[in-house]
Amino acid sequence: MAVIDNGYLRGQIGNVVNRKVGTQNVVQTKPTGKIRQTQWTEAAASDFGTASSAGSLIRRAFIVAHRKVHDGQMHNRLVKLMQRVLRGNGKATKGFMQVKDGNIKRLVDFQFNEKCHIYDYVYFDPKVSFDEVGNTYIQLPAFETHRNLYVPKQCSHIVLKFDVIGFNFPRKSYETIGSHEMELPLYDRDQKEYDKQTLLFDTKDKLFDSLLVSLSTLYIYKNRTYAYLLNDENLNPAGIIAAFNPKKNQ
After folding, report:
1. What local confidence, expressed as pLDDT, does residue 250 receive?
2. 2 and 99 share one domain
3. What's the predicted TM-score (pTM) here?
4. Can you say whether the dihedral through the CA atoms of 65, 67, 71, 73 is positive or negative?
């Protein structure tokens, strides 16, 4: 309904809205409905949802590595990287992209805490390989504690932690295949040497879309009565060091 007020028409008649602006009577049409998304925007929204869901799954799975001590933009960085993963093969139809069809290796070197790159604190590179059935091998070179690792003040022990997790992204599920911790005492400033070794993680014939491997570090102060974790938001290195799509799931 519209009324005349001091010579000006106010209100709505059908989809026409009348209002006063200064000394003018302005007539506008009212939008009749929502703007429909195009096929392209709907496809882009679908693929973004796939990337966001996968990023959330990875973030939850690797709580064992980052322990919720990360920068505030970690999830957004991970989702953006997952979008690159989806576009990794250039063949999938927009709106139907899947992680297993993309390039999961683009996740390698993702840092859960942007302030602490894992290789600014671990001065050697583990070599990770996968066999045809998805078993994971992590080869560690010989290294010395004070020469090949960052040692913060008051730290008496460093723990190197490796986690291998299998993902089924369409089902939004994951499973820890294995975890290995190396506790390295630092009771004195002498170099302690560790021989090279190979860690083996067996999938036990379970099917996964993707396998991801993380490396994280714990810095601990121990005395005779208690142990104290030194990690905080500025000192919590954790990152993905390897990624793989098993051939049996491709």
Report:
1. 43
2. no
3. 0.80
4. positive
